[in-house]
Amino acid sequence: MDSRLILTVFCGAAEFFALCRLVLCGVSRSYPWFVAYLAAGFAQSFVWLAGGPKDPAYAFLYAVTMPIIVALRIAIVLEFWRALMSKYSGIENVSKSLGLIVVVLAFLISLAGGCDTLHIWGVPWNRSAYHAVSLAIRYSGSVLCIVCSLLSLFAVCFREGVPSNLIRHGFLLTAYFGSVAAGFVVMNLVRGSAPLVGAIMTGSAAGLYVLWGLLLTRPGEGVHEASPVTREDLDRIGRLHLRLFSMGRTRLNRA
Predict the structure, then answer these.
(1) Is residue 102 predicted with pLDDT exceeding 60?
(2) What is the biggest distance separating any 2 CA atoms in the chain, rounded to whole angstroms?
(3) Confidence of residue 167 (pLDDT cuts 50, 70, 90)
(4) What is the chain written as a DSSP string?
(5) CA-CA distance, 77 to 91, in Å (whole number)?
(6) Does 215 have pLDDT greater than 90?
(7) Residues 170, 172, 176, 181, Cα dihedral to 10°
(8) For helices 32-44 and 3-24, angle between their N-to-C axes, nearest 10 degrees
(9) Which of 68, 134, 135, 73 has its CA nearest to residue 102?
(10) Of 40, 143, 198, 205, which one's alpha carbon is 20 to 30 angstroms from that of 185?
(11) What are the structural domain ranges in the chain?
(12) Are 43 and 237 in contact (CB under 8 A)?
């Protein structure tokens, strides 16, 4: 049995584990696009049933499904973006403008990874489609990694009102897209490294899926905020100070 098939099955199982954990913990309602991405990735793992990477059926299914995967990747970053920006007041307009840019980018990358348009233009899709999909995965991974890292650092610096799950989700997304981008850079620079690098990327993705299932919990959805000090609290503190002062003076008089 091909070792890559074993890794793909293991990665699909990890995605299914994360999907079930998020649903059972009630966290899935906060990240519906991410849940959809896990489901799509789990379904894509069955592409191996069509054969290995050298089989035409596998090549066709891979080229058809990857644009959907890339579009969902951009959707989950947009989802993370909007969830984080909603925790801060006064920046809604900026968030909407940048969100529109991300949506347009998702459409263009998905279009670049399509096969039908290449066939219509008379370009052999078997090579050009793979090249387009490879570029879409590589450059979208780099852009999304940078976006997620900046947003995660912003959330850490201004953490008040931000759930712990959202911060963990951001750093996991950064690691995930960073591994995708780094893997494709190595594969393009080092000839013949695709099988090994692909196996490492699949294994790292499986590990991150397991972490998603373990780290995103129901308590992590809560927000720990400092309660405002009220007039009653100040009066209570004042009475306590007077009581302590009177007790201290009484002890001094007895001494």
Answers:
(1) no
(2) 103
(3) very high
(4) --HHHHHHHHHHHHHHHHHHHHHHTT-GGG-HHHHHHHHHHHHHGGGGGG--TTSHHHHHHHHHHHHHHHHHHHHHHHHHHHHHHTTSTT-HHHHHHHHHHHHHHHHHHHHHT-SHHHHHTT--HHHHHHHHHHHHHHHHHHHHHHHHHHHHHHHHHT-TT--HHHHHHHHHHHHHHHHHHHHHHHHHHSTT-HHHHHHHHHHHHHHHHHHHHHH--SGGGS---PPPPPHHHHHHHHHHHHHHHHHHHHHHHH-
(5) 18
(6) yes
(7) 50
(8) 150
(9) 73
(10) 40
(11) 3-224, 229-255
(12) no
For the chain, give the percent of residues with pLDDT over 90.
27
| Chain centroid offset of residue 150 CA | 13
Q: From CA 18, how far away is CA 120, in angstroms rounded?
A: 39
Tokens (6 digits) for 57: 């059926």
Q: What is the CATH number of domain 3-224?
A: 1.20.1070
For residues 108 and 215, the model is more confident at 215
Which residues, 6 or more positions from 184, have their beta carbon under 8 angstroms from its beta carbon? 134, 137, 138, 141
Contact residues for 177 (Cβ-Cβ < 8 A; gap 6+): 73, 77, 141, 142, 144, 145, 148
Q: Determine the pLDDT at residue 119.
A: 42
Looking at residue 22, what is its pLDDT? 95
Per-residue pLDDT band at 98 (split at 50, 70, 90) = low
Res 91 pLDDT > 70: no
pLDDT tens-digit readout, 103-134:
565 556 545 544 444 443 344 445 555 666 66
- Nearest CA to 9 out of 46, 59, 62, 61 is that of 46
Alpha carbon 34 to its chain centroid, in Å, reads 7
